[in-house]
Design a protein that fits this description.
This protein is of the alpha/beta class. It contains 11 helices and 25 strands. The strands form 6 sheets. Strands 1, 2, 3, 4, 5, 6 and 18 form a 7-stranded mixed sheet that branches. A 5-stranded parallel sheet has the order 8-15-9-10-11. Bound molecules: flavin-adenine dinucleotide (FAD).
Length: about 425
């Protein structure tokens, strides 16, 4: 056991934690930095896990976001396979797995999220998968040869992307979900119906308004999924994508305040409830100045921008997090969806620009007449203006008339 001091201790080596380290060095910060993660791999991007990496088209190395070589060159100490067990925020000391103790000036919680698990009969059968790490995608790929039929439980982007990728690999896929249409939650019924029509046109079966009761297998391996209404769907592989929960074990132990979403409460500058403590990425519930409320958002680019904001504030820039949330999803090479802003808190109006029939449209979400989010499928050029309009809280009748009218120049709004 040893006692160390590091100026900045970062807990969690995902993209949020890695982004703190990267930006600190970019800003010329010369203090010591320890980036600690419990996974085996250097910080990597998770999105390929349901897309090209699962399809076998890209490698683990392609997904690496921060290389150990960069860390060495920039004097960032990267320790993998190591958990932080406890943080004493009064003494400013963290206890690591193995017994080492690290005192710090600043500690950043970038502990991410874990998959939400279904507790049902049969969920211990072989052939059942969740995807959070790239290694989970490896496990799925390793079983594919013995699989003809797949069920994804959950119709959010994880379920839809897995369905698209595995269909591309020749599997017969069913998407089973509580909502009526895939991706409907948060993106609305128009988008949900569109996604459904594309998936169905590619041979995927969509079972909306359904709840899983249990899973069955004749031996040790899953053979079928049984729904609450008694229907059965044969499957030799089941992928569950029913959301994620913030990983706040260490934060809880440290007595940090947790919010309604279960995330670590931080202010607009991403400062937590104890001195020298920050949070970034999926685990952080931050005070959004743009939306005027606490938000927790699980998007890769939000995690990266959170990391940058924390770094900038550690070096004394005193800046609020002002990035307009951005998210994308690719369904094989069928279409790509880009989403800006946040309509999860609700919206009361949806305006469409372009044509759903042509697969080239943007959806504009308004709440109380104010633009809160925008989505594009095949009209990414709209998003440049969407970012500006969301950031400036654009509103009013002129905006509502202009958005669906293809003859208006959005740049002029
Ligand atoms: C399969 C998949 C596909 C996705 N696709 C998209 C997409 O297309 N577009 C998009 O915008 N977003 C996507 N996301 C979401 C995006 O990947 C996340 O928002 C992003 O990974 C969050 O980064 P993070 O660093 O906050 O958390 P994480 O990536 O979860 O990293 C946190 C790390 O901290 C570690 N940790 C936790 N506690 C401790 C501790 N006590 N000690 C040491 N280490 C600890 C964890 O093991 C983990 O490695 C996807 C996510 C998944 C799982």
């Amino acid at each position: 056991m040893s006692e160390l001091h590091r100026d900045v201790l970062i807990i969690g080596a995902g993209v949020a934690g890695a982004s703190v380290a990267k930006e600190l060095r970019h800003l010329g910060f010369e203090g010591s930095i320890l980036l600690l993660g419990r996974e085996l791999d250097a910080p990597y991007e998770r999105p390929p896990g349901t897309k090209d990496y699962l399809a076998g088209k890209t490698s683990r190395d392609d997904a690496t976001w921060l290389h150990p070589d960069w860390c060495e060159e920039h004097d960032v100490e990267l320790r993998l396979r190591t958990s932080v067990m406890k943080v004493d925020t009064d003494a400013k000391v963290a206890k690591l797995q193995g017994g080492d103790e690290v005192s710090y000036e600043h500690v950043v919680f970038a502990t991410g999220a874990n998959v939400r698990r279904l507790r049902l009969d049969g969920t211990d059968l072989e052939g059942l998968h969740y995807i959070r790490a790239l290694r989970n995608a490896d496990s799925i790929r390793a079983e594919l040869e013995q699989v003809e039929q797949v069920v994804t439980i959950g119709g959010s982007y994880i379920g839809c992307e897995v369905a698209a990728t595995l269909t591309g690999l020749g599997k017969k896929v069913t998407v089973l979900m509580q909502e009526d249409h895939p991706m409907q939650n948060g993106m609305g019924e128009t988008v949900g119906r569109y996604v459904r029509s594309v998936l169905e046109s590619k041979g995927i079966t969509i079972l909306g308004g359904q709840e899983v009761d249990h899973l069955e297998g004749d031996d040790e391996r899953v053979e079928r999924v049984v729904t609450k209404d008694g229907s059965t769907i044969d499957a030799q592989l089941v992928v569950i994508g029913v959301g994620a929960v913030p990983d706040v074990m260490t934060a809880k132990g440290a007595g940090l305040e947790l919010g309604e979403s279960g995330g670590i409460v931080v202010d607009a500058h991403l400062r937590a409830s104890a001195d020298g403590v920050w949070a970034a990425g999926d685990c952080a519930e931050f005070a959004s100045e743009l939306y005027g409320k606490q938000l927790r958002i699980e998007h890769q680019d939000v995690a990266i921008e959170h990391g940058r904001t924390v770094a900038r504030n550690i070096v004394g820039k005193d800046e609020p997090f002002s990035f307009v949330p951005y998210f994308w999803s690719d369904l094989s090479d069928w279409f790509s969806l880009q989403y800006l802003g946040n309509a999860a808190g609700g919206y009361d109006e949806e305006l469409i620009r372009g044509s759903l029939d042509d697969g080239a449209f943007s959806v504009w979400y308004l709440k109380d007449d104010v633009l809160v989010a925008a989505l594009s499928i095949g009209r990414n050029e709209d998003l440049i203006d969407a970012r500006r309009l969301i950031a400036t809280k654009a509103s009013g009748d002129a905006l509502k008339t202009a958005l669906p009218d293809l003859s208006t120049d959005l740049a002029a709004l």
